């Protein structure tokens, strides 16, 4: 697999190798020792699956004080996946990385604890899988406003479909408690 560092420390793009022929292809979605060699040596304890229609935007989500690291991949369809650094003291605090993930390109995006995550669906439908290194805790969830101007995210959808929870997201300036940066 190829590992590509991004502008945010700890956020990496992973390109698993595909082995294809006339029948289709095969690829490993996850192998612990390979991901550990890439700096992702966490035990994953929860796998999630979501199916969303074109224009659905999910996020931006963060948990604190019980954070989650996430490994995101797409089985079918296309999304623009966005990770925002919300770790106090980070050299890239408030900055984001946006990467297109699709069933076709097979890319994955990893965000460590302290990174807010969200995505918007670019295809008619997208099936998204993500592994988490801690369990979901509704009491610890922070929903960051997807359209907070302080983040400068250029979403390709101007009027996304949002859940009530995501529509009520708060601006970065209004979040009192954020995780610390631990290099």
Notes on the structure:
With 183 residues, the protein is mostly beta strands. The chain has one domain: Jelly Rolls. Helices cover 5% and strands 40% of the residues. It contains two helices and 13 strands, in the order ββββαβββββββββα. It has helices at 32-37, 164-167; strands at 2-5, 12-15, 19-21, 24-26, 46-53, 57-63, 70-76, 78-85, 96-102, 108-111, 115-121, 125-132, 141-143. The strands form three sheets. It has a six-stranded antiparallel sheet with strand order 1-2-10-7-12-5, with no helix packed on it. The chain has a five-stranded antiparallel sheet with strand order 9-8-11-6-13, with no helix packed on it. A hairpin with a 2-residue loop joins strand 3 (19-21) and strand 4. The mean pLDDT is 96.
Which properties best describe this structure?
183 residues; 6-stranded antiparallel β-sheet; 5-stranded antiparallel β-sheet; 40% strand; globular
Summarize the structure.
It contains 2 helices and 13 strands; from the N terminus they run E-E-E-E-H-E-E-E-E-E-E-E-E-E-H. By secondary structure, the protein is mainly beta.
Q: What name goes with the CATH superfamily?
A: Jelly Rolls
Q: How do the SSEs run, as a string of H and E?
A: EEEEHEEEEEEEEEH
**Helix content bin:** under 10%
Largest sheet: 6 strands, antiparallel
H/I helix tally: 2
The total strand number stands at 13
Rounded to an integer in angstroms, the radius of gyration calculated over CA atoms is: 16 Å
Give the N-terminus to C-terminus distance in angstroms: 24 Å
* Unreliable runs: none
CATH class: Mainly Beta
Count structural domains. Answer: 1
- Please give the CATH architecture: Sandwich
How confident overall, as mean pLDDT?
96
Strand adjacency order, main sheet: 1-2-10-7-12-5
Which word captures the global form?
globular
- CATH T-level fold name: Jelly Rolls
């Amino acid at each position: 697999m190829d590992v590509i560092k991004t502008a945010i420390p700890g956020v990496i793009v992973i390109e698993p190798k595909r082995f294809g022929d006339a029948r289709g292809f095969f690829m490993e979605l996850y192998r612990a020792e390979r991901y550990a060699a890439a700096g992702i040596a966490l035990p994953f304890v929860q796998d999630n699956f979501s199916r969303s229609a074109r224009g659905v935007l999910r996020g931006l989500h963060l948990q604190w004080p019980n954070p989650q690291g996430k490994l995101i991949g797409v089985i079918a369809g296309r999304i623009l996946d966005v990770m925002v650094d919300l770790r106090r003291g980070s050299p890239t605090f408030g900055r984001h990385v946006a990467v297109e993930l699709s069933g076709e390109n097979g890319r994955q995006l990893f965000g460590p604890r302290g990174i807010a995550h969200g995505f918007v669906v670019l295809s008619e439908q997208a099936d998204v899988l993500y592994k988490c290194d801690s369990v979901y805790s509704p009491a610890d969830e922070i929903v960051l406003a997807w359209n907070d101007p302080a983040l400068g995210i250029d979403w390709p959808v101007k009027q996304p479909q949002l859940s009530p929870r995501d529509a009520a997201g708060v601006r970065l300036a209004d979040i009192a408690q954020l995780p610390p940066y631990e290099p």
